[in-house]
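Handout, page 2. Input:
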Amino acid sequence: MKASFIQLPGKVHTIITTLQNAGFEAYAVGGCVRDCILGRQPEDWDITTSAMPKEIKELFDKTFDTGIEHGTVTVLLDKEGFEVTTYRIDGEYEDSRHPKEVTFTRNLKEDLLRRDFTINAMAYNEKEGLVDVFGGLDDLEKKRIRCVGDARARFLEDALRILRGVRFAAQLGFSIEDRTREGMRELAPTLKKISAERIQTELVKMLVSERPGLLREAYELGITAQFLPEFDRLMETEQETPHHMYNVGEHTIHAMENVRADKILRLTMLLHDMGKPAFKTIDENGRAHFKKHAFESEIIAGSVLKRLKFDNDTLRKVTKLVYYHDYRMPAEARDVRRAMNKIGKDIFLLYMEVRRADVLAQSLYKREEKVQNLDEIESLTEEILEKGQCVSLKELAVTGRDLIKMGMAPGKEIGEKLNELLCLVIEEPELNTKEELLKFLWKEK
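Output:
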């Protein structure tokens, strides 16, 4: 693993050389350096420099103050923005996020020392090459997440780093170094000081990574207890039933791992069984039941998503998928059309993915017939969609205006008749023509 993999984009090179030619130090820094060494495409390029904000602004034609109090100026080149930040030393942190004061410095090492993890504390330019004061390259080679300097100090500076560390491990497939783990465990309660929006961002990145199962490690370190205590209850709820071989929490993790890395799907699998702890009963044979747990799961899912400030579209889709995650049907075309009407055509294919992920996270008991049922339903779904069969009012061949033209008075009866016609064509899709439906209505008169 070598820094020779780093190739600076032309505009980044221009900014760095402009600063160097003016007598200042300048480097690409942080995640972009890490990603280049790993052979990944950086999402953005951050630049750090010994130049003061005012000096940066004097060297470039177009700039605007992004976070001038923290030394950050955005430089615009051909309408593309690059954040350029003065080396700085952070003062005392009072709220597990913001430093009380920021002091600018001309020393690169002092700037790198304030960063979170060694793999994010490397700097690079083409003149000096890689600057790796804290062993980030070695940690990349060993696939290890390790704090810069003292882990406890880094987490006290910004508690979100605790969750970020687990997220990086999930995204990169890395382990967490022991002292860093212990710092996470000790200071996990300080996550309560972090805003819901920042927690949400890190949680989603972890969930849509290749290793959403690292939520288990977050649980073991006491991290989920701070912002998702509902998950901790799942990890403590057993499932004494032949349909399951894991407790509810482990089943949830396996279900997330079984579904593709989509935000809506991963959130649905995280939340789909949240109602089980409250709805668990044990019969006289010692067998567990969770009847109607989907009702409670939907309520809890809504509460969690609102608490973590998710947008309304995500809230709508996830809660609906959670509510219907255990909805089952025979593999018959009319039953599938009914289900599409009930669940919604817009999310029905997502519902199918949810059902399959749920089944594959259960025990082997009756799995073959469960999977066969899903395969047959998927085949019927494809056929229904290909034929454009009607499953909703907006696809019905007649409208309320057509009924009014027939002499029906506007009002409640119109809606009732349209729903009656919808039920008819869901049973017999070939009747969804204007001629057939109006003929049916005339017969009723």
